[in-house]
Fold this sequence. Notes:
By secondary structure, the protein is mainly alpha-helical. Helix content is 92%, strand content 0%. It is rod-shaped and about 95 Å long. 0% of the residues are buried.
Amino acid sequence: MKNRILAAVAIAGLVTLGACNRTPQAANVEAVTDNMADNMDAMASNTAGKVENSADAVRAAGENKADAIDKAASNGASNATLNSMAKH
Length: 88
C-alpha cells in the first residue's frame, strides 16, 4: 500500500509538470480522468477487501461444519461403545 501511495504521489508530480504546457481544457480533461482512475482504484481495493472477507467467512463456515461432523462422529462412536458395553 505504501508503494502505491508513493507511486501516486510521483505520478501526480509528473502530471503537474506535464500540465505546464497544456491548454486549460486539456489539463482539465486530464485531471478529471485522473480522478476517475483514482476512484476506480479505490473501488477495486474496497471490492478486493469484501471478496477476501467473504472467502474468510466461507473458510470459517467449512471449518465449523467439519468440526461438527467430527464431533458427531466422535459422539456416535462413544455412544456405540457404551451401547455395546451395556449389552454385555
